[in-house]
Amino acid sequence: MNSASHRTALSVNVNKVALVRNTRHLGIPSVTRAALLCLQAGAQGITVHPRPDERHIRAHDVHELAELMRAWPGREYNIEGNPSQNLMDFIRQVRPHQATFVPDSEDQFTSDHGWSFPQDAERLRPLIAECQQLGVRVSLFMDPVPAQMALARAVGADRVELYTEPYAAAWGTDRQAAELERYCAAAQAALDAGLGVNAGHDLNRDNLAAFVRTVPGLLEVSIGHALIADALELGYAATVWAYQACIDAGCS
User: Which active-site residues does the annotation give?
Assistant: First the structure.
């Protein structure tokens, strides 16, 4: 369980802002402006996932956001992606606070599964070590499988990000409680292995509070699609406040 003494951080994924911008050549909406407004509203971090095809976040966004984040000490910059593609170049150039390794193919529509061990161990271990030598924390995108958590720690990961789409898909159905229990068990296994616990994918204002309330040791949630969709109606500041209220409700 989370409590008032441990508050889950909100990292806003701004990929979908870039997706809208890229439909024209006018530079609007601004990705850096969106990130700034979210930070001003109290978001604890900004996340980007720069894919090789630049369908949303582009290389210049990664660098411009890094410059923005330097003016916000205490807030975290998280860059996610597949370390076998373009991610490591960004990590070496920018040195964000956190690198989240995601096992996506280059043409993948969206992230839909986590790493598997021992299959992925040997290729990840040296890349994790390189990030840590650069002073960058490493989180591995993982399915909620308790037995995999100690193996993630064994390759050197600092944290795991639990892939929450199955939980979101079960919300409001008779599978909801069972899915939530799976995430609780995975999070506890991660904590027992010495890992920090993050989570993300399809979390929203409906399902977030229950997840934060129930899953132990939750350090950070990374939320993009639902949050940016809400911001189209509510504005960035009001949306960040709404998500923070969900987190507060879960942590109380």
Answer: 49, 80, 201
